[in-house]
Amino acid sequence: MFAVIKTGGKQYRVSEGDVLNVEKLEGEAGTSLELSEVLAVGEGESIQIGTPTVGGAKVLAEIVGQGKAKKLIVYKKKRRKGFDKKQGHRQLFTSIKIQEIKA
Q1: Where are the beta strands (DSSP E) in 1-103?
Q2: Domain edges within the chain
Q3: Rounded CA gap, 77 and 80, in Å?
Q4: Gap between the Cα atoms of 100 and 85, Å rounded
Q5: What is the Cα–Cα distance from 1 to 18, expressed in whole angstroms?
Q6: Tens-of-pLDDT digits for all 103 residues of the chain?
Q7: Residue 35 buriedness (CB in 10 A; 0-12 / 13-18 / 19+)
Q8: Measured in Å, how far apart are the chain's first and last C-alpha atoms?
Q9: How far apart are CA 35 and CA 59, in angstroms?
Q10: C-alpha 48, offset from chain centre
């Protein structure tokens, strides 16, 4: 069984046992959380698609850890003006493990 969930402005296709990195969520490692924005759930021919979410469906997950992604370089330049600016950015993320999908 799989589910399509929405968190952090992004959508993810998950199944039980998956570990994925999502936008930062509050909580420490070992904390369980409930994701209630389920857009679709099912398997094979029996797929339920929500309008916009599936009523009564939820995904239970556990926080594995918090971290930072690789550094991105943000470089801006305006030609012939003597302007250039270089910045680095590391996005915060949360690793979660999907425990159970309830439909």
Answers
A1: 2-7, 10-15, 19-23, 32-35, 38-43, 46-49, 58-68, 72-78, 83-89, 92-102
A2: 2-102
A3: 9
A4: 46
A5: 12
A6: 999 999 999 999 999 999 999 999 999 999 999 999 999 999 888 999 999 999 999 999 999 999 999 999 999 999 999 999 999 999 999 999 999 999 8
A7: buried
A8: 10
A9: 5
A10: 21
**Which of these, 53, 67, 57, 55, lies nearest to 96 by C-alpha position?**
67
36, β-bridge pairs = none
Do 100 and 16 contact (CB within 8 A), yes or no?
yes
pTM: 0.84
